[in-house]
Design a protein that fits this description.
Distance between the termini: 34 Å
Low-confidence stretches: 1-9, 225-232
Mean pLDDT: 85
Strand order of the largest sheet: 1-2-3
Strand content: 5-15%
Order of helices and strands: EHEHHEHHHEHEHHHHH
Structural class: mainly alpha
CATH topology of the largest domain: Rossmann fold
Number of strands: 5
CATH superfamily of the largest domain: HUPs
CATH class of the largest domain: Alpha Beta
Shape: globular
CATH architecture of the largest domain: 3-Layer(aba) Sandwich
Largest sheet: 3 strands, parallel
Helix content: 40-55%
Length: 335
């Protein structure tokens, strides 16, 4: 839920979030992030900003062509999954360089203890510069656009806490309410084949646009958490049910739930119904993605226009911030 009181009417509602380009978009990415991004663009048309976090991806990607390819692939995924450039502003992070200037200014009001806390919360054992700066860049991404709502996965809650603290620290230090104090919006996360949260690092993820045979093999790997099919099963402990309910209507959920509870569905039947639901859910989107691949110029135009709009907003923020802290004459980046 969004805490409507945090902005006290001084800031218009605005959604900002981003996703790193990877070599495989999976169901966990979709249900934790992209699904709610798509939903929120209808709730806040013209005030929903979503970016491809290619600056963040530099932490792990050292091949420029790979980064470009994965960034383009994520753009195609977003658009195929329902992002509407008439309602949402969609851009590459690196096309809005203002975030890097803001990151430095915000660093000057950030206590190291805050960043230490973030690093420890992420369970990083080895201290490195990226442990600190990647979190600070995420803060700048949010505050450069003066976001009031940040839709993220549950594992990103610590970053939002730090964002809120830094926004308050800046507003207090310079006695000027430049930044809203954003709130987090969280969606249901998908369960992986082993019953844990779906993640590439656990090797338990389903690719959204997987081929039918690949999908079938992944479903076969789902860990058996329920009791034998001859007995009533515990749906809350069953990974197949956990995935099925994310895509099913309330009526479909109630139907399969009652069959679970009375032992009227076998494991193989449940897998088959889940596979059919996944196919039904994503097949049309696969076709749309293929069509977009044939028109990459239009995809690039969408990203460029989105970056122009995002730079306009970030320029306005930087103009206020630079004036507030007293650094030089404001230099406008190209819009």
């Amino acid at each position: 839920m969004v805490d409507s009181h945090v902005n006290d009417g001084n800031f218009p509602a605005r959604v900002v979030s981003g996703l790193q380009p990877t070599d495989m978009l999976h169901l966990g990415n979709y249900f934790a992030a992209i699904k709610q991004h798509i939903e929120l663009q209808h709730e806040y048309p013209g005030e929903s900003f979503y970016f491809i976090a290619d600056y963040q991806a530099l932490i792990s990607i050292r091949a420029p062509e790979q980064l470009r390819r994965q960034s383009q692939a994520l753009a195609l995924d977003y658009l195929a999954l329902g992002l509407d450039p008439n309602k949402a502003i969609f851009y590459r992070q690196s096309d809005v360089p203002q975030v890097c200037e803001l990151m430095w200014i915000l660093t000057c009001v950030t206590r190291k203890a805050q960043m230490d806390y973030m690093r420890l919360a992420a369970k990083r054992i080895n201290s490195s510069i990226e442990s600190f700066l990647s979190s600070q860049l995420a803060v700048a991404d949010i505050l450069a656009l003066r976001a009031t709502i940040v839709p993220v996965g549950e594992d990103q809650d610590q970053r939002l806490i730090i964002t809120r603290n830094i926004a308050m620290a800046f507003n207090t230090a310079f006695d000027t309410p430049i930044f809203p104090i954003p709130t987090m919006r969280v969606n249901d996360a998908a369960t992986g084949t082993d019953g844990r949260k779906m993640s590439k690092s656990y090797n338990n993820a389903f690719a959204i646009f997987a081929a039918v045979d690949e999908l079938g093999s992944r479903l076969a790997e789902i860990k058996r958490l329920a009791r034998a099919s001859s007995h009533a099963r515990a749906p809350k402990m069953d990974t197949i049910f956990a995935l099925y309910r994310l895509m099913a209507t309330p009526e479909q959920q109630n139907d399969i739930l009652s069959r679970y509870q009375r032992g009227g569905i076998t494991r193989r039947q449940a897998q088959a119904e889940l596979q059919m639901k996944l196919k039904e859910f994503f097949d049309q989107l696969k076709t749309k993605r293929h069509e977009l691949e044939q028109d990459l110029d239009t995809v690039e135009d969408i990203l460029r226009e989105g970056a122009r709009r995002a730079r306009e907003e970030a320029n306005e923020t930087l103009e206020m911030v630079r004036d507030c802290v007293g650094v030089g004459q404001y230099r406008r980046f190209g819009t």
